[in-house]
């Protein structure tokens, strides 16, 4: 336990695990009702963070898997909660949670892949749901989901990659659609999408030194020029740098210190920046960022699929591309 004084400056693993478990069990709070529409992603952030902390056993996995399955709709996709309309984002969260618990066989992979393949447009892009928004986030999600389901052949992968490449800007970064401003979140989804599509040749890794410029004086990373640092960019930037073999572009000691300074050392959880309120999203991305930097006491994370590497699920994929 971390009950003794002097936790300052080190990761309070047990307290973060306790924070996530307490949050998962709090079903009568205002926050619980306000987050209903994206709960499936919230569960993915929570259970993946717990797995990376080595505490996955602290939650009722069987109950979680049953709840995930109850979010699936007749069209094959998943909604953010039971009886919510399907969206590609929650479909990926569902698939990731099932992979984490090694229960992917409980879904009909063809049905889920069919839902995703219908979202691909003639120019290779993807819409997120029946409302028609296009975003490179959805390109990544489609490729990631179909890869995890072993159904990549259900997509036009080359066209998907070409569309993603068409969202590349003069500064080397990527936006959500062609011509849109570069943002570190979009850089992650585009680099990871091109990785899955085996099309990293469509980007210029050295031009992506834009990512190294995201580190601010306090060690934290921001998502675009002139913006404040935020713990979640530790993931969005570092995962892309890790895929490109350029983690050394960042001062990792300074970034780890920044993430540690965003911990609630008493009650656990990590916030976006020092002194702010903690939340499960930043707790997950802070821990996952630390994992990418090999922080002691944490499991390794896959930068492309955002899942623990422990079970070696992606090992063959990574080896093929090295
Ligand atoms: C499996 C890890 C994983 C992701 C699934 C949803 C998704 C795919 C990716 C999201 C990528 C993305 C766009 C992340 C950025 C999120 C974020 C911090 C947005 C905030 O943007 P602004 O403009 O913040 O509000 P700044 O920091 O620019 O002020
Ligand atoms: Zn953030």
UniProtKB/TrEMBL annotation:
<comment type="subunit">
    <text>Heterodimer of an alpha and a beta subunit.</text>
</comment>
<dbReference type="InterPro" id="IPR008930">
    <property type="entry name" value="Terpenoid_cyclase/PrenylTrfase"/>
</dbReference>
<dbReference type="GO" id="GO:0046872">
    <property type="term" value="F:metal ion binding"/>
</dbReference>
<keyword id="KW-0677">Repeat</keyword>
<feature type="domain" description="Prenyltransferase alpha-alpha toroid">
    <location>
        <begin position="12"/>
        <end position="306"/>
    </location>
</feature>
<dbReference type="InterPro" id="IPR045089">
    <property type="entry name" value="PGGT1B-like"/>
</dbReference>
<dbReference type="GO" id="GO:0004663">
    <property type="term" value="F:Rab geranylgeranyltransferase activity"/>
</dbReference>
<keyword id="KW-0808">Transferase</keyword>
<dbReference type="Pfam" id="PF00432">
    <property type="entry name" value="Prenyltrans"/>
</dbReference>
<keyword id="KW-0479">Metal-binding</keyword>
<comment type="similarity">
    <text>Belongs to the protein prenyltransferase subunit beta family.</text>
</comment>
<dbReference type="InterPro" id="IPR001330">
    <property type="entry name" value="Prenyltrans"/>
</dbReference>
<dbReference type="GO" id="GO:0072657">
    <property type="term" value="P:protein localization to membrane"/>
</dbReference>
<dbReference type="GO" id="GO:0005968">
    <property type="term" value="C:Rab-protein geranylgeranyltransferase complex"/>
</dbReference>
<comment type="function">
    <text>Catalyzes the transfer of a geranylgeranyl moiety from geranylgeranyl diphosphate to both cysteines of proteins with the C-terminal sequence -XXCC, -XCXC and -CCXX.</text>
</comment>
<keyword id="KW-0862">Zinc</keyword>
<dbReference type="InterPro" id="IPR026873">
    <property type="entry name" value="Ptb1"/>
</dbReference>
<protein>
    <recommendedName>
        <fullName>Geranylgeranyl transferase type-2 subunit beta</fullName>
        <ecNumber>2.5.1.60</ecNumber>
    </recommendedName>
</protein>
<keyword id="KW-0637">Prenyltransferase</keyword>
